[in-house]
Amino acid sequence: MSGTGNTTFQNITFENLGVIEAATGTLFLPATFTHTAGILRPTGGSIGSQNSFDVAGGTLEGSGTILRAQFISGLISPGGEATGDLRFPTGLILNPAVTVRIHANGTAPGTQHDRLRVVGLGTNFVNYRIEASTNLTDWIDIATVPSNGGGEFQFDDPESDQLPERLYRAIGP
Predict the structure, then answer these.
(1) Which residue range forms the structural domain that includes residue 161?
(2) Do 56 and 91 fall into the same domain?
(3) N or C: which end of the chain has fewer CB within 10 A?
């Protein structure tokens, strides 16, 4: 799909065995859509649903935005075989059966290494404490970030390229 506006599919049933791609604009999938095979690929655009949709297989790759998706299984690989930058402005839910593959070839996000950007949604105009852990047991404070008028907040870890893995959580008021 390409174009600058929104494209919405409603009241249809389909199965992706190929590639669903959004180059520009936003592609809204049916509220009942479950991605089980094939590739979801934002290439500058957005793929999402008015409500939420499940990813229960297949691959998410590319550089763009994913709206309201819950990942049950499958592969997330920003950029596919190259590097990429995926943004999740409505949060990111990953179940244990999801594989995340990250390319790391340098220090520049999106061009030399992959980047997943998860934007939190919370209360308007408050501060959120960002904590990090390597084992889900021991947590340390690493930053405080403010939310905007829409309740969105974002944190980019400047040390992420120096660690083999790091887990994050946001603590609100």
Answers:
(1) 121-173
(2) yes
(3) C
Q: What six digits make up the tokens of 113? A: 């290494």
Asked whether residue 147 falls in the same domain as residue 90, the answer is no
Do 96 and 159 lie in one domain? The reply is no
Two tokens, residue 146 = 């403010």
CA 133-169-172 angle, 5° bins:
135
pTM recorded for the entire structure? 0.73
Q: Model confidence over 6-58: pLDDT tens digits? A: 766 666 667 788 899 999 999 988 878 889 999 999 999 999 987 888 899 99
Cβ atoms of 43 and 24 closer than 8 Å: no
**Residues 89 and 157 occupy one common structural domain:** no
Distance CA 70, CA 151 (A): 20
- Fill in the DSSP letter of residue 70: E
